[in-house]
Amino acid sequence: MRRLVLALAFIWACGGSDTAKPASDAHEVRKDAVELVVPREVVGEEVGEEDPSGSDTFETLADVPPAPGEPGYPCNENGQCNSGVCLETPQGKVCAQPCVENCPEGYTCKNLTFGADLYSVCVPLFLLLCDPCNENKDCNADATGGGAACVDFGANGRFCGGDCSYSPCPSGYECTEVADVNGTKSKQCVPAGGAECKCSPRAIKAGLSTQCYQKNEFGQCKGQRKCIVSGLTGCDAATPAKETCDGLDNDCNGLTDENLGTQIECEVKAVLNGEVRVCKGKGE
Questions:
Q1: Do residues 95 and 48 share a domain?
Q2: Quick check: is 250 in a domain?
Q3: What is the rounded distance in angstroms from the CA atom of residue 155 to the CA atom of residue 225?
Q4: What pLDDT digit, counting tens, does each position of 150-162 carry?
Q5: What is the DSSP string of 104-157?
Q6: Rounded distance, CA 157 to CA 150, Å?
Q7: Which domain range does residue 113 map to?
Q8: What are 179's strand-pairing partners?
Q9: 109 with 142, same domain?
Q10: Which of 263, 260, 256, 268 shows the shortest CA–CA distance to 284?
Q11: CB 3.0-4.6 Å disulfide test: which of 161, 210, 266, 269 passes with 157?
């Protein structure tokens, strides 16, 4: 805080003499001079202090960390927040900001119920963006903006989009029309340029997963991809193959050793026409 000290300088006369004091004593700062304190301003107004580069120094409310219980302060439970709501956000769990209509960019005003109490707070629009999912409901928690779809990315899996019909997408995402797991199309935020979704710390902690598949001329085999500490795993589905007499469902159609005919060459147990048989040479 800058302190400006204003003092009055006087030229003192000696015992009625008209002779002034020497120049070195002509400007003496009085000990009882009044000290004026200029308070620091924090809302976009100039403080008046210059930095070494010569430019003026400014401060805004965003530079001031929230006090305990105030919106944005880290929390673990509702009772720690003045708003009554400890909310999960992309930055972790923090005290929610009460609202009537307007909220910061990336948030929307929503009513949340805890017990018998109703709270209107700002909730993140894209909290679950890019989370692995299997149904649309996986992408729309109570404390989110809603309208997100579980987007079908084909063999790579299914991941949460974000409703961009009334809010711009976060950096690194683009708003485009895509189909959800039910085939319904809507505008959703998805990774820009065809990039693949990455696991968020929250998704890793929850061990979220999605189904995927391997497909070729023999069939389609389903598998899973999961969020682990090192990131999103590859698809663990088997590669479809031509059916052989080995007791396995090689083409992943739900049947084992089917359509082999009577001329089979093997010496293992197999299921033929719903019956377990032992194949020995040809003709069994």
A1: no
A2: yes
A3: 11
A4: 999 999 999 999 9
A5: -TTEEEEEEEETTEEEEEEEETTTTTT-B-SSGGGG--TTS-----EEE-GGG-
A6: 10
A7: 78-124
A8: 185
A9: no
A10: 263
A11: 210
